[in-house]
Design a protein that fits this description.
Length: 316
């Protein structure tokens, strides 16, 4: 996944704002994306991820602010910017009655690619997305995972510098999700990629850097591991196991001084109870002392914050 060539700023977003009537979907966000970087836009539904992507691609106008793509203004020269971008919206715009070849043939001509160059572009996009053996299948005959691949092939047909993917694995089964993630990682070795998601595992699997958006504002930014480390410093997290009644243990922990939240862990062996404890400070000594008054302690260990914890702490 890393970046193997000289970096420069490919996308520069400054004070980007967008309102729908009186509703502020974006409240002045600013960020930049380097060449060869895989950037994840992470946030809950309605956070402003899709709005941001539509503005970056020139399909939606901003209320205020500026977007430069390779030093070209999206507002002033949208067609020049769109020529550099491959865009896959959440619902890929496919023609089910066409074959994969016919669909990509049409997409290539839309981009002004003809003749020998068109044939090469179609076959290259199919090789990149694993569609070569299904080139003459009707799109209506394909599984959802392969239809998503056709959408990616369409986004790649003109060999863009930048790929913008809006929730590219939504609705896929686990095997299809893994295939698409691997494909995105491969594409990220040669192109700048922005993908939006609210799936934390997706961020950890494919992204070099993450921007967390909530209610139209950027609330965090950094490498996935760095965000998790920051959350770990803000919220201490412990896994605790004891011998004793499972029902009483979680309620007991909630009453310990310094405990902010307790989550039961299902599936503990018979005669034991396990829970995860969250606190704003290191309370291991207090926990051990309190637990010893009523239970036999089997385990007390610190846990690292996951991307799910990052997401919960930043978007509540």
């Amino acid at each position: 996944m890393g970046i193997s060539f000289m970096q420069f700023t490919m996308i520069l977003v400054t004070n980007l704002q967008k309102s729908y009537d009186s509703f502020p979907a974006l409240k002045g966000i600013s960020f930049e994306v380097s060449s060869g970087e895989v950037l994840g836009l992470l946030g809950p539904n309605g956070a402003g991820k899709t709005t941001t992507m539509r503005i970056l691609t020139g399909f939606l106008g901003a209320s205020a602010g500026e977007v430069l793509v390779d030093n070209i203004s999206v507002d002033a020269q949208p067609e020049a910017v769109q020529a550099m971008i491959g865009y896959l919206p959440e619902q890929a715009p496919l023609y089910p009655d066409l074959s994969v070849y016919e669909h990509l043939d049409f997409a290539a001509e839309v981009h002004g690619i003809t003749g020998v160059k068109k044939e090469k572009a179609i076959h290259t996009a199919c090789e990149q997305t694993g569609l070569t053996e299904r080139l003459h299948f009707a799109i209506s005959e394909l599984s959802k995972g392969y239809r998503q691949r056709v959408g990616l092939a369409q986004a790649l047909i003109h060999d863009p510098k930048i790929l913008i993917l809006d929730e590219p694995t939504t609705g896929l089964d686990p095997n299809q999700i893994q295939e698409i993630r691997e494909l995105i990682k491969q594409l990220g070795e040669k192109k700048t990629v922005i993908l939006s998601t609210h799936i934390m595992q997706e961020v950890e699997a494919v992204c070099d850097r993450v921007i967390v958006i909530n209610a139209g504002e950027i609330v965090a930014e950094g490498a996935p591991g760095d965000l998790a480390a920051d959350t770990q410093r803000a919220t201490h997290q412990y896994r605790v196991s004891v011998e004793g009644a499972a029902v009483a243990f979680a309620d007991f922990l909630k009453k310990v001084k310094g405990v902010e939240r307790v989550e039961k862990v299902p599936g503990s062996p018979r005669g034991t109870a396990t829970a995860v404890v969250f606190a704003s400070s290191d309370i291991r000594a207090v926990l051990m002392k309190k637990i010893a008054t009523k239970f036999s302690l089997l385990e007390l260990s610190s846990e690292k914050a996951s991307m799910e914890d990052v997401f919960a702490s930043l978007t509540k």
